[in-house]
């Protein structure tokens, strides 16, 4: 966990220098439940976190994701599974702070390493102009093999 915090701090520093797109870290861990008991090391668990969209006021995404335990997980060396779920909601009047891309590629609004090397969890935002909704997609990248696991959530704009 400490390694993940250090890597996240480094990512924020680099993002602040303009080398990366505007990425956001979880504003708050909501909770966690253990899924696998390990006698002598930390348990595997499902973590629930909240992420606020940096370009859209009053949209919060709640993400549940698997986190590997054991000593390798505690030291940040284990690869977390690509299993997650997302629910995004308007928590107040929704206002966009800047231009939201309308192309088919969307925009990555959050990215976090889920292994020591080459694997990331990402949340992308898409704008469906016909229905006037924002679509959030959580997905995983991997250098060799991407993951087919994904989840979406939709927030209507008024």
Automatic annotation (TrEMBL):
| Protein origin, superkingdom | Bacteria
Decide whether keyword Signal is in the record: yes
Signal sequence bounds: 1-26
The residue ranges crossing the membrane are none
InterPro entries, per the entry: Uncharacterised_CreA (IPR010292)
Claim: Signal is one of the keywords in the record: yes
Question: What keywords tag this UniProt record?
Answer: Signal
Its recorded name reads CreA family protein
Species whose genome carries this gene: Dongia rigui
């Amino acid at each position: 966990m400490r390694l993940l915090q250090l890597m996240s701090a480094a990512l924020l520093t680099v993002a602040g220098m303009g080398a990366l797109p505007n990425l956001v870290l979880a504003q708050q861990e909501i909770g966690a439940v253990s899924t696998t008991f390990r006698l002598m090391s930390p348990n595997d668990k499902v973590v629930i976190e909240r992420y606020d969209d940096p370009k859209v006021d009053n949209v919060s995404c709640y993400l549940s994701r698997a986190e590997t335990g054991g000593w390798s997980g505690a030291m940040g060396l284990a690869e977390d599974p690509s299993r997650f779920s997302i629910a995004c909601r308007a928590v107040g009047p929704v206002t966009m702070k800047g231009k939201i891309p309308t192309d088919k590629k969307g925009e990555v609004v959050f990215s976090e390493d889920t292994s020591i090397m080459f694997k990331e969890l990402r949340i992308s935002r898409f704008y469906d102009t016909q229905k006037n909704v924002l679509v959030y997609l959580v997905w995983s990248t991997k250098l060799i093999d991407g993951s087919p696991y994904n989840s979406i959530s939709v927030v209507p704009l008024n």
